Each structure stands twice: as C-alpha cells, then as structure tokens.
Amino acid sequence: MHVSRRSLLAGTGAVVLSTGLPQSAAAAAPQRRSGLAQPPRSRFVRKDVAGLVDAVTGAWAPELYWYAKAVGWMREQRRTDPNSWRFQWYTHGKPRRERTDPPEWHQCPHGDRYFLPWHRWYLYYFERIVRNVIVTELGQKSMADWALPYWNYAHLMFGGDPAASKEWRRIPLPFRQRRIHNPQGREEEDNPLYLPVNMEGRCLGDRAMTFSEVDPAVAMREDSFWPPEEQEVERAGFSLVLEGSPHNVVHVRTGGLMGAVETAAGDPVFWLHHANIDRFWTAWLTRHQVPTGWRWPEVRPKHAPDDPDLPYLLRDENGGRHTLEGPVFTFPRNAYTYESLTDGMGAGGTPSAFLVVGMPQGAPTFAVADEVTHLGAEPVTLSPGTGRSGADTIETAVESGDRVVLTFEGVRADAAPCTTFLVFLGGDESDTDPAGPAFVGHLTFFENVGPRAAHSDGTRLSFDVTETLRELPDQAWTGEEMPVVRVVPGPLAEAAAIAEADPRFTNATFTVV
Questions:
Q1: How far is CA 501 from CA 269, 344, 382, 504, in A?
Q2: How wide is the angle at C-alpha 233 spanned by C-alphas 230 and 236, nearest 5°?
Q3: Are 383 and 267 contained in the same domain?
Q4: What residue numbers bound the domain in which 485 lies?
Q5: Which residue stretches of 133-237 are H helix?
Q6: 3-state SS, residue 203
Q7: What stretch or stretches form a coiled coil here (predicted)?
Q8: What pLDDT, on a 0 to 100 scale, did the predictor assign at position 15?
Q9: Mean pLDDT, residues 186-203 taken together
Q10: Per the CB 3.0–4.6 Å rule, which of 115, 284, 493, 498 could disulfide with 419?
C-alpha cells in the first residue's frame, strides 16, 4: 500500500511550520516565525529516561520496561518485516548493502537540510511501531499512550554544577544493566537494551561524557536554521551546528554501534538520543524562525553513486508506505509532546570561533598542514612555519575586521574512534580547556566513518577563528608568526581504538575573507 504524506496529513491535521518558495530559493528566502509559541499538547508525552528508574528499588517504569520488551520482540521478526528491529535499523543505514534491499533502507541524510525533519518523521513512525507492538503484540492495552523517552544528557542540577549531574551524561542505567528490571524491581530475562562494552557494542561503558561535550548552548544560540545561499561565507546555522555538537559528539563518544551511520540505529539508545535532538529543535522552534519554501525532493540524496533514484520512504505500524513529499516543515498535529522544553537546553559559554560554510574563490589561503595528518592518543601540534607573508596577512585581517577561517579537509576515519578531537589555537600547550579562549571546536567522526559512508572521502569543517585569534594572549600568539593549531584527543581517549580507526584529515588551511 502506498500512502503519501499528503494523504496522511489530510486525515490528522497538521501544523505547517513553513511554506512557499521553490526549493532553489528556499535557503535564501526570508524567514518567519514558526507559529509554535508553545507546541500543541498531546496524549503521547516523551519523558526524561532518568525519571523512569526508581532510585531506591531500581524498578523500571512501565514505559521503559515495555520498550525493552518491544525491542526484544522486534529482534525476533524477519528483517523484511517493517515492524522488525533490523528493518527499522536499516532504514537509517545498513552495514552491507545488497541489490535486493527494500527501497526504505539506508536513506538517512547527514550534513544536509533534511537532517532534522527526516529524523523527526523517522522517530515518529518508529514510535508508532513500538507502541503498536506493546499494545497489540504484547497485549498491554493500558500502554496505548506509550511514547519514546529521551536521553537528557545536558541536564544540570539546581545550582548549575555539572559535577552534580554526571549521572545524566552516562549511558542511561537501564541500557547498562544485563537483566530487565520489572516495575516491581525484580530482575527478569536478559535485557535487549544492553550492549557489551567493546567496539561492537558501546565504548563509553559506565563512564560519563563531559558537560562541554553534550552542551547544546552553541546551537541553541544560532538565529538561523540554515545559512543563506547568497553569502559566500556564512554562519552554518542551527541545524548544522546541532548536528555537529552535541549530535555527532554523543554518537562518537557512545561508540560501538552508535559510532557510524550504518550501525547507529541498531543500538536501542539511538532512539532516545535522537528524541533529545528533536527536543532541542522543538525548543528552538518556540523562539526562532524557519525557512520558507523548502520541499521534499523527488529523489533523495544518494549515499553511493549506484543507489537507485528513490524518494524518502518510511513505513508505519500497519506496513503502510509513506512518501515524504510537499512542504518540509509540515507535521501531524498533537503527534507527541515533551515533558520539558527547558531542562538541559544549554548553560555553558560559547566559544569565539563558530562553524561556517562556503568559501570565496581566490581568497588568500595559507597551509597549516599540506599532507595527510593522522590523529592519535596524543595531541598533534601543527606549526605552519615562519613565513612572514601569511603571518602579516592574518594579523592585518584580525586588526582590520576581515575574517580568518580555519578549514580542515578530508576529515574521515576507517572505523569509529570512540573519541572526538578538540581543536585549539596558539602555542600554549597547557591550554586544553574547551571553555578557554583558545578553543575552536570539535573534529568528529560519524557520517565520515568507513568505506561505505555517505562522506567516505571525508567531510569539510570550517571555523571562523577571527575573534579567537584576537582574544589569544601574547604567549599563545604574538602575531609575528602563523598561528599554531593544536588537535587534542578528547577525554578518556583509548590508544587502541584510535589506532584501529585511523582518524585523519587531508589538509588544513587558514583563509582570509
């Protein structure tokens, strides 16, 4: 059965977030308020998973208990069944592609404008499938309002001390326990939410990510959803910044299945992570604007040159096929709501550097690294040399109001490295504080991992570092030489995992625009 998204919305009602211009003009179009001063309420409430475990008895709330039971049931189904675990996993990405794969498989968009809206629809149908499994297949009529929990890793306790909220930055406890805990606190069978602590399961184990790794503050302070097309170099905007951090960072730090696009949705915690990413977007939409005129493409972007020409397709709990078509920012009314749109929305300061896209032709460019640089468990220092031309041009740009952009090309890895890499400017090697003046941003390895990745030849990351250079103390950069670039592995980086993954970039440059 083919059911288009248009016919679905005709039966359910919809909140239209934007409409209007042809796609070619969409990004440059004027933007307007989303119309969601407060998202509509729903009987389906997505809750913080941390509140679904009894701290005294260890009992799991029914929402969590039946999610685990549904995952177990879905894993037992044939992978060609749309209600099966592998069918839903492979809709996002599939490790080994075959010519007979259904058209729904391996379609996840990363690094493009459809990233957030596609994942919103993907979670929506997955949530409906799990709910139907719980109610129909597992016979739990009382769970007809079941909704997907979210992993609130940027939660801060009262007072704002990140150390007090460390538990929120761990893999949620029920995903680390080997046995299911029922709502009475008793242990039952093996836990379908659990994965072993290794490169095939999860790398993070019971360790906690740092608050700077999960803080969405930088993204939440972006004003535009997407960069205007008429600008040669422009701020990347909310969607791309959020995708980079904390989205990619959490994928990489969780590691294992979560560490690459093709395997990520095989981890049951993936869905809670993306519910939180969608929650960030929902909160951002209450205060910001969205572009007008965006429409779903007739042919989705390809992950490989030999991929067939297909639209975005998703399946529902009855096996119905839904084509994403028409306005991008149109979604069913009252599909779900969140327990909170204020908790865990970012509290840290934002670095002076910021992610940008675009680069004018012929702009003065100076090499920082002109050959492949392999990253490891120790910091890498890139000293561009002592040439006066580049140093003078960059110093003049910083003083005159021109912009200096640091670009890494060909950022990629052979496998998930289980760590991100932090970029700093200046020669002060003791300054590795992501809250300090030398911090630029993260190099992440997720959609650029492995030979079959959508960006297997590597991604390009550009940061406007003008203000960073301006604020560096003299001991870090005097202006008489090219600025030093330092790439530092993140906390708890493991040498063996990094060596196997071989994270690297092709070259790095400064450009004055």
A1: 22, 31, 21, 9
A2: 95
A3: no
A4: 354-512
A5: 211-214, 217-220
A6: coil
A7: none
A8: 34
A9: 96
A10: 493
